[in-house]
Amino acid sequence: MEVVVIGAGYVGLTTGACLAQMGHSVTCVDIDADRVTDLREGRMPIFEPGLDELARSMSMAGQLHFSAQMSLPLSRAELVLIAVGTPSAADGAIDLTHVEAAVRECARGVRAGTPLVIKSTVVPGTAARLHRLLEQESRPVPVASNPEFLREGSAIGDFCDADRIVIGADEPRSAQVLERLYAPLVARGIPLVSTDTVSAELIKYSANAFLALKIAFINDIADLCEAVGGDITEVANGIGLDGRIGSAFLSPGPGFGGSCFPKDTRALAAMAASRGRRQELVERAIASNDRRRRKIAEQVLRHLEPGGPDRRVAILGCAFKANTDDVREAAALSVVPRLVDAGITVTLHDPRPPRFPPRELDGATWCSTPYAAAENADVVVILTEWDEYRQLDLRRLAGRCRQRRILDYRNLYDPDDVAAAGFDYVSVGRAAVRARTAFTRGGRLRASAAAAPST
Ligand code: NAD
Ligand code: UGA
User: Which end of the chain is less enclosed by CB atoms within 10 A, N or C?
Assistant: First the structure.
């Protein structure tokens, strides 16, 4: 099938490459001409495991093309998937400017009857509203919905082995074309949910909101563990084994970030409130997540000598989660500016630093290794669960630090191991532990035992 994907970002590129692998002929169109040039020359604008190889091999096989021009690919398209960004507007509602612009432009370029399918996450009613708008403008093009559920960091696997495919159409032709598009995946047993556009759009928001609620819940229980002395790892395991609850999305941490949960929960809450159906659970989860974010920097400051000279903090992990270079709404973006404002020297490491670091990280110094970041640090703060950090040589790290304290917001280590390596260790929802071995730079001095540090 001749497919055009509008927007060559995390979703558009993954979708394009995976559909090409399924045998479709795909053109990814993006308004960012530099991005298109990079893609044509085999350079990926983003880091997503496996995408580089897949996109390059599909391009070489002639199945995947990149273009900054819409008109020619659109004129041949049997189906157009729109995967442009839908950022938050200032009031938390969704900004549909890019989707609307793309839909209008595509409607002018496609042959009559070619479905325009919105893959971007949009508030319920968007596809139907845009369809009516096009009708009023005498351009009666069907507008359908096909929300995407992939996660960054595991996007290709999530797309090709999806839990389900959701298609929303208000007339039979779009549904048929979408069924044809996904036939190779459905043949492998992936369930297809075929519904109307509003329900499809609601499925997407409800799924993200539910997962965000799960994370907010486990973070609240982690706080309770700290207060009453429980261990969140045991608690999450104990509840997750209940099949009705499930063990996924029960990892406590610095609060959910990224380009989707924060913006999609805000958009759902704003939309529901505007329709007189406030989603109070979702509103509470947003507020509790925001509070959690603000609390991190204050916790870090509490572990530093008040007003001491040249206080230094090493931040390990800027991405909002592991295996991506995406820093949108990442914890580091709220922690770094607060520390810098408080006069702290902040060093920063990430295995995949963003190509264009956001201004929130301006006051910090990037380092090429976690050990370099930890040089003379008073506190090491772990914000992203990269495997590279799980495998750190903690004794080597201890030798670099001025004060040996780790605040681990991803629970990467066994507390005993960290204490044995000479660190005071504070993690999430587990008892804090004191260093069991005291070090000077480069050498062990003596074994020690003391009370746990405060969280
Ligand atoms: P992104 O910012 O990575 O990419 C969007 C791309 O669209 C950019 O390259 C931009 O230049 C391009 N673009 C904008 N307007 C355009 C236009 N008129 N014509 C052509 N190109 C245009 O965004 P993303 O993370 O891929 O997200 C896209 C949508 O998918 C959002 O609605 C998001 O909520 C949703 N989504 C994202 C994920 C994810 O993991 N990132 C997962 C599921 C759904
Ligand atoms: C999320 C959803 O998981 C995808 O299904 C959805 O398609 C996507 O949003 C979207 O709509 O864009 P993503 O944001 O890529 O995917 O990553 P997640 O793995 O869901 O993580 C989101 C945030 O929650 C991260 O900050 C992560 O660290 C945090 N998280 C996740 C936790 O704190 N605990 C967990 O148990 C899981």
Answer: N
User: Quick check: CB of 107 below 6 Å from ligand 2?
Assistant: no
- Backbone φ and ψ for 381, nearest 5 degrees, come out as -115, 125
User: Which of 320, 376, 325, 381 lies closest to 348 in space, CA to CA?
Assistant: 381
- The crossing angle, in degrees rounded to 10, of helices 280-302 and 197-228 is 40
Cβ of 121 closer than 6 Å to ligand 2, yes or no, is yes
Distances (CA, A) of 64 to 110, 346, 364: 19, 43, 39
- Which ligand 1 atom minimizes the distance to the CA of 101? 18
246-251 mean pLDDT: 98
- What pLDDT is attached to residue 450? 47
Q: Which ligand is nearest to the CA of 329?
A: 2
Residue 251 Cα to ligand 1 midpoint, Å, equals: 27
- Contact indicator for 409, 382 with CB cutoff of 8 Å: yes
The string of pLDDT tens digits covering residues 350-385 is 999 999 999 999 999 999 999 999 999 999 999 999
Give Cα 379 distance to the centre of its chain. Answer: 26
Residues catalogued as catalytic: 260
Tell which atom from ligand 2 comes closest to the C-alpha of 219: 33
* Phi, psi (degrees; rounded to nearest 5) at 369: -135, 160
